[in-house]
Amino acid sequence: MWNGDGTVDINGFRVYYTEVECVRRIFERHPETASNLRPMNQLVKNAYLNNLLDLIDIACLAPQELTEEELRDAENTLMDLVGVGFELDWLKKKLEERCVKKKKMETRGDRMRELDRMIVEQRRVLLALEVELKNEENEAVSHSARLGFEDVV
């Protein structure tokens, strides 16, 4: 039911029309999300809902887009929301997965840099061997050449 201020009531939250689908989907997939929410005024509830939507936005980011600070802030916000009665095990799991993926990406990045460094070093060694081989070939050719008459006489 639309209110006169451009919002609709969804599970006791006043939601702007731009967020209606997102909020409906949250409560459809996770009906327990606000089932234990302690009574509070509408402004505070909406502030908490906005925090929840922000956390979901963070969980949607690619691991390389997340900073350690954002992940720490997200964890603190999640704990605050759980502290006031939100049931967010599903979101906690997603955020933890993001943290694990970020750590794996960082580890993988370190390994890739190490492999790249090793390749550069091996290319240097190979180049030095190619130069040495070319010198040996040149010497072999000069020692195996036939002598001319004038060289002998």
TrEMBL record:
It comes from Brassica campestris. This is MATH domain-containing protein. InterPro entries: MCC. It comes from the Eukaryota. Residues 119-146 form a coiled coil. Keywords: Coiled coil.
